[in-house]
Amino acid sequence: MQGIEQAAADLRAAIASNPGEHGTGLVQFANTYALKSSQRHSAVLLKLNWTKAADEEQQHRVLQDMLALLEEIVADSASGTAGGEPPLNQLIVRAQEHVPEPPHDVVFSCENLGKTYKKSGFQLNGVNLQLRFGEITGVVGENGNGKTTLFRIVAGELLHDQGSIAYPLFGQDSAAKKGINWIKVKEQIAYVPQELPKVYGKLEEMLQYEAAIHGIRGKKNLREVDFIVQRLELSEHLEKRWKELSGGFKLRFALACALVWKPKLLIIDEPLANLDFKAQQVVLRDLRNLAESLRYPMSVLISSQHLHEVEAISDQIVFLDKGKVEFNGPKEQLGEERRCNTFEMLVSCKEEELREHLRRLAPQRIQHSGVSYVVTLPLAVDGSRLLRHLLECGVEVEYFRDISRSIKQLFH
Ligand SMILES: Nc1ncnc2c1ncn2[C@@H]1O[C@H](COP(=O)(O)OP(=O)(O)OP(=O)(O)O)[C@@H](O)[C@H]1O
User: Fold this and answer.
1) Which end of the chain has fewer CB atoms < 10 Å from its terminal CB, N or C?
2) Is the pTM of this model over 0.90?
C-alpha cells in the first residue's frame, strides 16, 4: 500500500485508538487528499466537535463521523483517480483552474485616484494601487489621513473625482464608455466598515440569509454557515440579538457575514480595535489562510493602527499621510533605501544620561515617546553594535526593537 491508502490505514488506526489526538491528523489528511472543499471543511468541524463533545455518547458519534469522512475521502479519491492521476496532483490541477494567472489576478486597480471633500477641504491625492488575489494589502496612517475614504471608494460606496479605477477581474473600468456596472462589482466585494451596521433578528438566520443571497442554498448553506460559526467561535451567540453582543463579537459576526459567501475582495476597516489578543490572532490567521486559499482565493484590503500585526500579515503596505501616499509597495521594500537606522527601546537610565551615552555614536535624533525612546543613528550603527555599546555603558535595556525596516519607522 502507498499514498492515500497507507495514510488512511495509519489514520484509521490512530483515530480508533485516540480520536481526540488525531483530529489534526484528519484535517491534514483531508487537506492533502480530499477532492471536495466541503470534506476539508467537515474535517475542521469534526475536530472542533470533538473538543466540544460533552459526554461519551457524543464522542462516539463524532468518532463515527470522523471514520465515515475518512472513508468518503478514500472512496472519492479512488473514483477520481480512475485515469491514473495521483489525487494530490489532481486536486492541485483542479484548484489551479480557479486561480487566475497574472494579469487576470488583479481584482482592483487605480491610477492617480483622488477625492476632495468640499465641506472639510480634505483631499485624497494621486493614489496608484493594485489589489491582487492571494495578497493582503495593509493601509496604515494616523487618524484622519484618508484610509476610510480610500476604502469606501474601492468598495463602491463613494465616488472618486480624480483619476480612474478598474476591477479587471470583473471586466469593469471607469474609463470605459459604459463606466462601471456597480451591481457586478458589489456582488463580489465584502466591505466591513469601521462602524458596523446594526443587524436585526437572530444571528444564525442572518448568516444563512447572507449566504443565500449570494447563491449558497440548501445543505451547502447550512454547512458553510456552520463552518464559519465554528471557525470564528460564534456558536454560543447564535441565539442572541445584535445589541446583546460585545464589540469584539459584533466584529466577528460581521466578518462571518462577509466570509460565508467567499467574496473575491474583502475590505475591512480597523478590524482589530475591539478584539482581545486571542481573537486578533484568530482573525489575522484566518485572513491569511483565506487570502491564500487555493480554491477560493481572495484579495484583502485592511487598515489598522496595530502596526506589528498588519505588517506581519500584509504582502503590500500603503502608508497614507495627509491624503497622500508616502509609501506603497511590497513590505520587503520598506526601508530599503534608508540612510539611517531607527531603534525603539526602553532603558533604565534618564534621558540626559542616554544622550550622553549615545553621543559617541553620532545620533541624528533621540525622541522620547512617553513610554519608550526612538533613536535614529547612522547606517553604520546596526542593532548589535548599539546593544553592545549600551551594555558597555552599563545601561539596562528592558525592550529593544530595530524598526529601520518596519512600518513603525514611517510614523517617526
Ligand atoms: N463626508 C465627509 N465630508 C467631509 N469631510 C470628510 C468626510 N468624511 C471624512 N472627511 C474628512 O476627511 C479626512 C479623512 O477621513 P478618513 O475617515 O478617510 O480618515 P481615516 O484615515 O480613515 O481616519 P481614522 O483612522 O480616524 O478612521 C478627515 O479629516 C475627515 O474629517
Assistant:
1) N
2) no
Residue 146 in contact with ligand 1 by CB distance below 6 A: yes
Q: Pick the last residue of a domain from 98, 129, 146.
A: 98
Residue 267, beta-bridge partner list:
191, 301
276 and 138 within one domain: yes
Mutate to test the pocket of ligand 1, among 124, 139, 148 (most ligand atoms within 8 A of CB): 148
Give the chain's domain count: 3
- ipTM of the predicted structure? 0.97
- Closest-CA residue, ligand 1 atom 13, reads 144
Domain hosting 9: range is 4-98
Q: What is the pLDDT of residues 167-199, one digit of tens each?
A: 998 899 998 888 999 988 998 999 999 888 877
The Cα 234–Cα 253 span in angstroms is 7
Same domain, 73 and 151: no
∠113-214-96 over CA atoms, to 5°?
Answer: 75
Strands 136-140 and 162-167: unpaired
Using the 3D structure, point to which of 98, 130, 156 is the last residue of a domain.
98
